[in-house]
Write a structure and sequence with these properties.
alpha+beta; globular
Length: 203
C-alpha cells in the first residue's frame, strides 16, 4: 500500500496522533543531541559548560569575542550578551514600553528595517541619527535572526544593559549546537554595532 492510500485508510484522529508523536520524538532527539554536544561546543567557543542538576542540557557562560555571554537552553531557552558600555537604545521585537524612555526618542529608519523587526525602537538623539544613517549595516546584522529560524524566535531585545535572544524549539526546551553557533555570534555582532553608534566622550 502506498503512502497516499495509507493516509486515506487511517482515521484522521490516528494520523494527528502519529504526527504529534513524531514531532515530539524529533524535539526530544534535538534536546538529547544538545546534551551530548554542549561540552564540546563550550570548548570550541571558549566558554564554560555547567551541567544541569535536573537532567537538562546545562548552561554555557564566559567571554566570547570580548563580551560576557550566557546561554541557557533549559530554563527559558535564551542567549544573553552583556553590553560593555551602556548604549542609549531600546530595541524589542515586542511592545513593552508604556512611554518613551527618558533621554530617548522614537526612531524610524528610512527603509523601516528597524521598525519592521522591532516593535519598540527608541534611542538617544545621537544614537538614533547614527542608526538611521547606518540602516544598511543593521539590515545585514539582522539577517541571521530573520532568515534562519524566524518562526522559532520568541523575542529579541536590546537595552543599555544587555541583549537577550529567546527561542522556542518546542518541549523539552533546548537550543541546538547549530543555533548557538549562528545566533550567539550574531547577537555579539549586533551589540558591538549598537555600541559603535555612540559618539565617543570628548577628552
Amino acid at each position: 500500500m502506498d503512502l497516499e492510500k495509507l493516509k486515506n485508510a487511517l482515521p484522521i484522529g490516528l494520523l494527528m496522533f502519529l504526527g504529534s508523536y513524531i514531532a515530539s520524538k524529533r524535539r526530544q532527539s534535538g534536546a538529547a543531541r544538545a546534551t551530548r554536544e554542549y561540552p564540546v561546543l563550550a570548548t570550541e567557543l571558549g566558554l564554560t559548560h555547567r551541567a544541569s542538576a535536573v537532567g537538562g542540557i546545562g548552561t554555557l557562560a564566559g567571554e566570547y569575542d570580548g563580551y560576557r555571554v550566557f546561554v541557557d537552553p533549559d530554563d527559558r531557552a535564551r542567549m544573553v550578551v552583556y553590553c560593555r558600555s551602556q548604549p542609549q537604545v531600546v530595541l524589542r521585537t515586542f511592545e513593552h514600553e508604556k512611554r518613551i524612555p527618558d533621554g530617548m526618542m522614537s526612531v524610524t529608519t528610512p527603509e523601516r528595517v528597524a521598525n519592521r523587526f522591532f516593535k519598540d525602537c527608541y534611542a538617544s538623539e545621537d544614537v538614533g541619527a547614527a542608526l538611521v544613517e547606518r540602516e544598511g549595516e543593521l539590515a545585514t546584522l539582522l539577517r541571521p535572526f530573520t532568515e534562519r529560524w524566524p518562526r522559532n524566535l520568541s523575542h529579541l531585545s536590546l537595552t543599555p544593559e544587555r541583549l537577550e535572544c529567546a527561542v522556542d524549539f518546542g518541549r523539552p526546551s533546548h537550543i541546538s549546537k547549530e543555533v548557538v553557533e549562528v545566533l550567539l555570534p550574531a547577537s555579539v555582532a549586533l551589540v558591538r554595532f549598537v555600541e559603535s553608534l555612540e559618539k565617543p566622550e570628548p577628552s
